[in-house]
């Protein structure tokens, strides 16, 4: 089930290198998955020493995660082409719908379980998810 995510990470990494203006190496991380791509040197051109790749930032202890209540397909918007329920940086209220999980042709609302600021959306739109998988990271109001 992780194939769509790895494919998407590879595509994004290749796009970054293609338009990176001299960027030769890119590393993308989503959860436990890491994709690293490096463009080969052009013949006869000395490449600068590669910059060290920093480790992924430590996960913040103050974040709350909204997790998938069941197995299904995650959607950020109520229907194709519609605006997403929330974007990174938005304030959310406890009980506010922030996504949809389709399971057995039923659309199940995903609601914020705490009030705060949306820090990250951890799953791509249209991705199959497992029960308990982290979908959103929210910084509760008290820790912003």
Give the biggest beta sheet. 4 strands, antiparallel
Count of beta strands: 10
The mean pLDDT is 78
CATH architecture descriptor of the largest domain: Beta Barrel
Q: What is the rounded distance between the termini? A: 34 Å
* Strand order in the sheet with the most strands: 3-10-8-5
Question: How would you describe what is shown here?
Answer:
Helix content is 12%, strand content 35%. The chain has one helix and ten strands. The two termini are 34 Å apart. The protein is globular. Strand 6 and strand 7 form a beta hairpin. The protein folds into two domains: 1-57, no CATH class; 64-143, Beta Barrel (OB fold (Dihydrolipoamide Acetyltransferase, E2P)), CATH 2.40.50.
Summarize, please:
The protein has one helix spanning 3-19; strands at residues 25-30, 33-38, 64-67, 72-75, 91-92, 97-103, 106-111, 116-121, 127-129, 134-140.
């Amino acid at each position: 089930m992780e194939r769509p995510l790895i494919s998407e990470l590879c595509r994004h990494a290749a796009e970054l290198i293609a338009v990176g203006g001299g960027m030769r190496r890119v590393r993308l991380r989503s959860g436990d998955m890491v994709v690293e791509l490096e463009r080969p040197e052009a013949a006869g051109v000395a490449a600068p020493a590669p910059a060290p790749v920093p480790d992924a930032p430590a996960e913040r202890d103050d974040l709350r995660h909204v997790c998938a209540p069941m197995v299904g397909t995650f959607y950020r918007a109520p229907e194709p082409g519609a605006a997403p329920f929330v974007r990174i940086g938005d304030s959310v209220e406890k009980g506010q719908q922030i996504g949809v999980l389709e399971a057995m042709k039923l659309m199940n609302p995903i609601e914020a379980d705490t009030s705060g600021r949306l820090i990250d959306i951890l799953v791509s739109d249209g991705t199959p998810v497992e029960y308990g998988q982290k979908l959103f990271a929210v910084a509760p109001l008290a820790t912003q």
